[in-house]
Design goal:
The complex is a heterodimer of chains A (565) and B (429).
Chain A: H1 3-6, H2 8-38, H3 51-86, H4 93-115, E1 137-138, H5 141-171, H6 179-211, H7 219-230, H8 232-247, H9 249-252, H10 260-273, H11 290-302, H12 304-324, H13 342-365, H14 370-373, H15 378-407, H16 414-440, H17 467-497, H18 528-552, E2 563-564
Parallel strand pairs in A: 1-2
Chain B: H1 3-9, H2 11-16, H3 21-30, E1 61-62, E2 68-77, E3 80-85, E4 88-91, E5 95-101, E6 106-112, E7 122-126, E8 131-136, E9 140-145, E10 155-160, E11 202-203, E12 209-216, E13 224-226, E14 229-232, E15 236-242, E16 247-253, E17 263-267, E18 272-277, E19 281-286, E20 296-301, H4 323-349, H5 395-420
Parallel strand pairs in B: 1-4, 2-5, 4-10, 11-14, 12-15, 14-20
Antiparallel strand pairs in B: 2-3, 5-8, 6-7, 6-9, 9-10, 12-13, 15-18, 16-17, 16-19, 19-20
Helix pairs in contact in B: 1-3
The chains are: A mainly alpha (565), B alpha/beta (429).
Bound molecules: protoporphyrin IX containing FE and copper (II) ion (CU) (2 copies).
Subcellular location (chain A): Membrane
Domain Cytochrome oxidase subunit I profile (chain A): 20-525
Protein name (chain A): Ba3-type terminal oxidase subunit I
Chain lengths: 565, 429
Amino acid sequence: MTFIDKFPTEAKLVRWHFGVGFVALAIGGLFGLVQALYRTGHLRSLLPINAAQYYTVLTGHGVLLALVFTTFLICGFFVWAVTRSLDRPLSHPRLVWTGFISMVVGTTLAAITILNGFAPELPFGSANVLYTFYPPLQAHPAFYVGAALLIVGSWIVGADYFLTYRAWRADNPDKRIPLQTFMVLATFVMWYLSSAGVAVEVVAFLIPWSMGWISQVDPLLTRTLFWYFGHPVVYFWLLPAYLAWYTILPKLAGGKLFSDPLARVVFVLFVLLSTPVGFHHQYTDPGIAEGFKFIAMTNTFMLLLPSLLTAFTVVASLEHGARQRGGSGYIGWLRALPWGKPSFSAMALAGLVFAAGGFSGMINAGMNINYLIHNTIWVPGHFHLTVGTAFALTMMGVAYWLVPQITGKRLQHRTLAAIQPFVWVIGMTLMSNAMHRGGLAGLPRRTAKPLFRGEGAAPFDPVVGTISEMQLQIAIGGTLLFVSLALFLAVMVGTWLSRPGMGRLSVNGSIPSALSGPADSPRILDNLKVWTAIAVVLVIIAYGLPLYGMLADGVLAPGSPGFPV
Amino acid sequence: MTRLDDTALSRRGVLRAAAGTATAVAAGTAATGAAAAQAYDGWFSGDAKGGAVGNYDGTTVDRTGTDEVTIDVGVDANGGTYGFGPAAVRVDPGTTVSFEWVSNTHNILIDAQPDGADWGGHDPIENTGFTHTHTFDTEGVYTYYCNPHLTMGMKGAIVVGGDSGGGGGGGSDQPTVAADYGDWFTKSADGGATGNYTGDTTDKTGTDEVTVEVGADANGGTYGFGPAAVRVDPGTTVTFKWTSNTHNVLVQAQPDGADWGGHEPIENEGFTHTHTFETAGVYTYYCNPHLTMGMKGAIVVGAPPSGTTGGGGGGAAGSSVSPASTLWTAVFAGAVGVAMLVPVAVSYYRRTPAPDSSGAFDYEPGGDTDDQPAIPEADAFEPDTELGHDEYDPVGTLSIVAVYFLILVGMWAFTYFIEFLGNGPTIMG
Ligand code: HEM
Ligand SMILES: [Cu+2]
Ligand SMILES: [Cu+2]
């Protein structure tokens, strides 16, 4: 039976989460276009912003896409995954609604303070603090309250995943946890563990500081708390994409997941290793001993393992599908895959782009080589491959498949949907390669200024190409990305506005069991309590001493007053 | 120019600064170049660094005839406590001005003061209750700002003596632009001094087409732009004519909103590059291969300032954000509002009754009931030949993953050994 008929309440929850997420995607994507044009100096005079408002746009882009769009999509997607795989309704749907409303209120507060940057004469403060909101940059208190409500809301939603699982466990004492639920719970264990850091940062320091209750905060401490959360958050974005690649993509390819136990091992590794790595974003921060950075680097490189395992398992599952569809040869089978089906092509292309992102991630992670690209436009080049494509494009693929099932409506504008993922990948290839090369040549990120020769940065000459050619590629790539996004939204709005019950859907919601199931894997894999305990120990090892050092000289010292922006 | 402009040129320097991005925001604005000179040379306009000043309405408060004048630091303005009150004030020579802090974390840095003046401002950041005094003896215009809140528009000006100072009247609609190149032609700028810049700007206003030679005899070879500095009217098409080999034209700075891209490829004798300069302001450019020889140039677009001390423009000086930003706000508020309403509209749509003809029914989620059938899905995919676990060898996957791994290692090696080790210290140096 179609998901909406079987679980109407849950389908409605998923719809609302996706709806809000797509609104954030639309606004954030528009901002992305503005940035890509403004900072490269193309059509600059047509854009109704000035250089200071560039940072308003940039804050809006980062917050709405990396924090809001992701969180709503993930929470909604997981509602579907838990319900479907446990084959039972949520135990406390009201709890999930509460979390959802908290997230909506938080998002609205934060969005108002950010957008007010366009009209400083209005009384809503402002918040050009970028999505990393580093002190001493200071935003209006409502921005921080909004961020806190967003995170707390996701915790509340997450609580019901666990409660529903507990109810299921009571009825099924001996069964293995279904894979999707296992993945959801593992992701949320990691999320609770890591987002506690940013919650402390915001609630204990930034809110009191922006309200004027405390006059200063210690920037190093707050940054450390931010990155304690800031790296795991990228796995919070990525693991839902992995969930889709492991459990939905093989089916769309016409095959089965290659190995269920391997998938569990991968998620366990992420629970263990995602959090004790945050210092790799602070390689250039003074005040943290090299040794702690080194531990973070080692852990980071260990994180390559689960990603390589994923590459293997997912590609093997696709190959299985392709061979079942009559594909053959060493690479010839790739042609047998259903590239014309948007849900498939979006997810598969997202995986391909992610493989390219793995390369720049390796460079970022190296403690010394990181200095080459730190704070250059290489870094946005990297994360538009990961969160900007591996996550975002995968979720678009999920939407093409899932939105019909949660609305009961047939997917509209199918041709637009079929070309959309390819336009996205072309745009991203242009934008991201140019960003990577520009970064190597010393082009900084987060600047409103079109720099034609890496002014003020490392005096490198580009290895290949010229700076203005890169700027042009960023502008064209950004435009194509925006076009692709518009196509996606047109398909979604069209589908959403169409009438339900107009006949057979084009998608099928059943998911076949894995080629090699969980039955013969060790049961300890499912024991999340054990893994959580080990993860906590690893976090204490990685963060205990450095945090103690930062606190020992006074919680608020060495401190800095705020610089409202 | 000023301290901030210098930091703007060193991005890494900016990042080192405690205020991090806060300064970068300021630098972004500061870097947008000189612009139309209005009252106080445009100091209060949106084009100057820090942007427009909300509490400057074009009037200069007259405090002549008083020996002691007070200016409040951190009055309510500019979206917070980010104003100098009053923003612009006229005093007699010899007047002692007290700056009194009425809110926290401000300082006073000097943007410009007359030759021979010795006001030092007050660099340390101070809180409510602090006072800084200075006696202004030298006549002329002083402009100053609060560094932490420059981007909010916390700027001020003092006119000492005279009667031609600040908020002077009228002037024509034509923007006036001073031929101010900062230190661009001096030896303290990138590339050193420019031999063929004599301190004069060749006036080509009134001509529609102007030619600049690229590679004129100068600077110990064919390493000059001829003329090095030229003034043209807005809308003039300038032709850059290569008169010797291996030069290019890169833009160093241009006004906010200008779109000149220069000509980055290196060209030889006979090549021409043309651009029409619409936006008023100062453009500076150079030839990259011969920058170190001093091959630099500048173009000033706009009329020369007519008056003496800071005359010109008058009341039009931006008292708040530009109209464009209001438009932007309206569009966005609208877009956000509409976007937020979409899900609501959608759920109402569902309730509207179905047209009878289409055979559709008023669907309620929940499946097969008396009133409606369940929504049917597509059929699941059934392979012709099912491939079980034991028959399946993922050889294709193994080869793809192996190739990927090799690419990964190769690119890493390239980045590490060529890009990283090959380029010597960067940020550390
Ligand atoms: C329409 C497609 C998009 C375009 C054209 C675009 C363009 C850009 C550009 C040019 C920048 C660099 C700005 C700078 O450093 O000065 C940027 C930054 C960023 N983008 Fe995107 N982007 C797009 C989609 C996305 C998506 C889907 C995500 C995440 C889900 C994303 C997340 C980010 C983040 C987190 C930043 C960094 C913001 C900061 O530095 O504070 N972008 N984007
Ligand atoms: Cu990280
Ligand atoms: Cu101030």
